[in-house]
Design brief:
By secondary structure, this protein is of the alpha/beta class. The chain has 7 helices and 6 strands, in the order βαβααβαβαβαβα. The protein has a 6-stranded mixed sheet, with helices on both faces. Strand 4, helix 5 and strand 5 form a beta-alpha-beta unit. The chain is globular, with a radius of gyration of 17 Å. It starts with 13 loop residues before the first strand and ends with a helix.
């Protein structure tokens, strides 16, 4: 018998920030969607392709780096911890491989970039855990594997864009169309973007 089914095949969602957005809210939202979403970024709808309009690119990066570097890693049962480890050893190894790949592709880890024992040091009780520092890459284009492939960990990439048309083109140039985030105070633009972006 033929049954109706739908497949959720993963995501590499665009998270688009225009220059007119509330930058404080956008920085929190972008890091939440791209890094925090789920446990240690392990969420299929993570907005881990962060597209930022060029006039505010440097300012947004500074705000996001400040937030990301303040994330407290630790035992998920400890109320002081904000992010725990990666769930499985094989996934931990996969995420680590993307930290290396991002650098090999010419990206710069603006913050984070370490995993395993390097996160806490050999003497820490967490040294053997599957911890990955929340990481933000810059300097990659939308064709880089680190940008295009689902990492399923606390790793996001930030890319600049000039105008709405370019943002739509980058957002839609993806193997995944699961979700999208949009930050603007222009309601008409928001409606136009929502209609043009191919995302669930």
């Amino acid at each position: 018998a033929i049954k109706p089914v739908s497949f959720e095949r993963g995501g590499k969602s665009a998270n688009i920030v225009f220059a007119d957005a509330d930058l404080d809210a956008a920085a929190v939202g972008a890091t939440t969607m791209g890094i925090f979403n789920g446990a240690a970024g392990q969420s299929c709808i993570a907005g881990s392709r962060i597209l930022v309009q060029r006039p505010i690119y440097d300012e947004m990066i500074a705000r996001m780096v400040k937030i990301i570097t303040g994330i407290r890693l630790g035992d998920p049962m400890d109320a002081a911890s904000q992010m725990g480890p990666i769930a499985l050893d094989r996934q931990f190894e996969k995420v680590k491989s993307y930290l290396d790949l991002g650098r090999q592709e010419g990206g710069e880890a603006l913050c984070g970039g370490q995993a395993g024992e390097a996160v806490f040091g050999a003497g820490s009780p967490h040294a053997g855990g599957y911890f990955v520092q929340p990481t933000l890459f810059a300097g990659l284009d939308n064709q880089a594997r680190t940008v295009r492939e689902e990492i399923f960990g606390p790793v996001a990439c930030v890319l600049p864009f000039d105008d709405a048309e370019e943002a739509v083109a980058i957002a839609n140039d993806s193997n995944y169309g699961l979700a999208c985030g949009l930050w603007t105070n222009d309601l008409k633009r928001a409606h136009r973007m929502a209609a043009a972006i191919e995302a669930g």
